[in-house]
Amino acid sequence: MPPQPMTIYPVQAPVQVAAFDLVQTIMDALAHAELTLEDGDILAISSKYMAISEGRIVQLETVEVSGEASELAQRYGMLPALAQLVLHEADFVFGGIPFGFVLTANHGIISANAGMDRSNIPSGNVVLFSVDPFASAHALYEKLTVQYGGIRLGIILTDSWLMPGRLGTTGLALAVAGFHPLEDERGKLDLFGNPMMVTVRAVADTLAVAAQTVMGERDEATPLVVIRGARVRFSTERLSEADVAIDWRQCLYIESLTIGIRNEEVLRVIASAPPFGTPSQS
After folding, report:
1. What are the residues facing 192 on neighbouring strands?
2. Burial (0-12, 13-18, 19+ Cβ within 10 Å), 248
3. Domain match, 223 and 138 both
4. What is the pTM of this model?
5. Residue 197: its pLDDT value, please?
6. Residues of the chain with pLDDT under 70
7. Are residues 156 and 36 in the same domain?
8. Can you spell out the DSSP letters for 228-273?
9. 281 occurs within a structural domain
10. Residue 182 and residue 199 in contact, taking contact as beta carbons nearer than 8 Å
11. Residue 50 pLDDT
12. Residue 122's domain spans which residues?
């Protein structure tokens, strides 16, 4: 089958700062944009917008800080209350940099500060991830499927993500419902008849990147995106992070920088490297 065009529709929605009716808000926003969900559509929604609808907002001044959090904050230049929330929310804390950021594992992804966000929310507040992002995505999928007449529908909770060794953020699918988030290419043949050995395409993550390009990160107020024409395999199966996350022992980044690290060589390269932003000599 030849490649098919894919269309992306950004949808603005009201700015929210407390729990709200997400399904009704989505339906109203789509109607205002003169859009409706059609069979085969993917709805990408900001994971922060989902979390706000669930009331996952914390006032930093209300957080009681432990001794461990105080030590973490001092070591990495973090706000003590933020460090406490990281310890509470993250499944694992790897380490960090002295600019107020630690690297964490949370809900099957490696992210900064357990995915917490302080942007586009009143000062002094922080938005946490949903308690169970995949459960939230599936619940939204079920409700919208009913509202739009039983259509085949995909849901992606999108988040911004830092790629190792790259400057800037990109998109990531924090959770998925309604379709298979991966496409296993292993065993299939490439253009020259060579069998693919390790390639598994991250379909949901790729679509999340497409959605992020029109959502924006600042004051666009565009937490919703309708993706039409995406070639995905729809499914009513309930998904979880186990369907997208990789075992740490198979993760090139984590394994290489922990057990598999070349200590002396890595330290030498880091010590001799210019800081980011230094113009290269050419």
Report:
1. none
2. middle
3. yes
4. 0.88
5. 66
6. 1, 185-187, 189, 191, 195-198, 217-219, 262-271, 273-282
7. yes
8. ES----B--PPP-GGGT---GGG-HHHHHTTTT--HHHHHHHHHHS
9. no
10. no
11. 97
12. 57-128
